[in-house]
């Protein structure tokens, strides 16, 4: 049950980012695909989180390795997305490569944020008792 709460906490964080306007302030997502990126990306991230928790239950070592891999991908994709957004916004002409990285990166940020945040909460045992995790 706690694992579901970790995933829900990640989804609430994404909803908070979206509702607060923080995503538009840092240009993480373009206004045209902002709703789609946050909705579909976070839902895909929730499914990935559930899959990772299932793998962790069956094979803990593999699950930890995959959790670290997802977190590493999040840490790599976030700056790449922000840099490509800056390049596209500052360009005088249409830059197809920058907008493509920005578009796909914005989805990737949310797909990897939810499992990385849920894994962090599970590691820190923020929700629930330490005896059951």
SSE arrangement, N to C: HHHHH
* Secondary-structure-derived class: mainly alpha
What can be said about the biggest beta sheet?
none
Strand content: under 5%
The pLDDT mean sits at 88
Secondary structure: number of strands: 0
Number of domains: 1
Work out the radius of gyration.
Answer: 16 Å
User: What helical percentage do the residues reach?
Assistant: over 70%
Uncertain segments are: none
Termini gap: 9 Å
Overall 3D shape: elongated
The helix count comes to: 5
Report on this model:
By secondary structure, the protein is mainly alpha-helical. It has one domain (2-25, 32-124). It is 81% helix and 0% strand. The chain has 5 helices and no strands. Helix 3 packs antiparallel against helix 4. It is elongated and about 50 Å long. The mean pLDDT is 88.
Protein traits:
133 residues; mainly alpha; 5 helices
Question: Secondary-structure blueprint of this entry?
Answer:
Elements: H1 2-20, H2 22-25, H3 34-58, H4 60-90, H5 96-124
Helix pairs in contact: 1-3, 1-5, 3-4, 3-5, 4-5
Please give a quick description of this structure.
With 133 residues, the chain is mainly alpha-helical. Helices cover 81% and strands 0% of the residues.
